[in-house]
Write a structure and sequence with these properties.
The protein has 444 residues and is an all-beta fold. It is 1% helix and 38% strand. The chain has one domain. InterPro entries: Pectin_lyas_fold (IPR012334), Pectin_lyase_fold/virulence (IPR011050).
Length: 444
Amino acid sequence: MRTRCARSGWVVAVALTSACGGGGGGGSDSDGTSSTGAATTAATMTGPTSSSGATSEGDPPTTTVDPSTGTTQTSSTSTGDDTGTTGAPPTACADDCHYIRAGAKGSGADWDDALPELPDELARGHVYFVAAGTYPAYQFDDAESGDAVIRVLRAGADDHGTDVGWDPAFAAGEAVFGELRFASGRYEFDGRDATRVVGGFESTVVDIAAPAIRFLRSDVDGAFAERGGKHVGGACTAMSISGDDVVVAGNRIHDAADDGVVAAGLVNLSFTGNVVHALHGCGTDGDCGPCYNGHSDGLELFAVKDSEIVGNMIYDVASTAAVFFGNWADELGMGASEYCENLLLANNILYSPETGFVAYIEDAREVRVLNNVIWGLHQGAYGGLSIGVNVSGLDLYNNAILSINYTHIGGEYDPAEHRGDYNLFGYSLGQWQDGPHDLVAEDP
């Protein structure tokens, strides 16, 4: 039975504001109910990579399990920012810390004797502190040595290694890099909210093509520029991820001609606490520029397994969707082996009124969608979540979703494989079977 939220004390874990929108027709892709909404807040949670499932029939999942450790975690105890540096003690240095300062001419032994930029070869197990200034593009390609990690840290007032030669001005302003590429594994790059990585024309700003990378708290700037309706400057893609066991947390990712983040062919990605926005939908389709097709997605996933997407905000996306599951495995890839599998999408705000649908789920197994806002512009049957073919093991609990559409990309509701409850919908197309505690809002 459908319950109207005006008569219920049911509480959703997100907040919405509403305004009137357009539409027209019946209960298919031309449904005429009018409602739009802007996501304003969302609960947050830890970063597990799989869910234990519902605690009982009709109840939402309340715990999650990290497959790498086997530990069970509760679902609302952190913000999703996995940096872990708040209140942390300063980095302890022996002979393993080096100092980088734009304009310097030294060896890197201290701040007086700093290197002008990251050296061509970095030492495994060492730390490289970076002061404010402008630095060139860099490829991280040092040979791995066991579990030894190379750390590149933005120097700050509270953590900058040695005090020899230190000037508080080194912590002021930004450290600005050109494009970064991780071609070998086991690096931590922590911008500490004072680092910007800027993309050149047709580039990928940050390319994570190796395992065990932690990329934290940086501004990933596609620097898109347009003149006369044409792409004349800035990156095609803000970030590409193809390495296993990668953590991307606490970053601002924006202003690319095409996609914000493309993740493909990997396992155990933790993508938490990031803001992705200002994607311009500019490419070969429409003759806007040289980037392939220009169908912008905030986060595009293909053959991604055992991973979490938690506590992010994705908005201001031109063209396709805030989140898009790649649907070309059967026609252009290796078939079902390249479907996405065992994914957690939790506590995200996906707000995309500029696109037809906010999110697409297709070619995916064991996907848990919990505590999210998925909201766009009500345009007939458009504006919410589109579910397509080859979707099994879908859990959809405690979300605020404008609407669910199966017919747009050929999907069909399967009660054995598509489970959900405690969701708030802006309106119903009659294509999702409401759970006993699902609510459909009154049309404002």
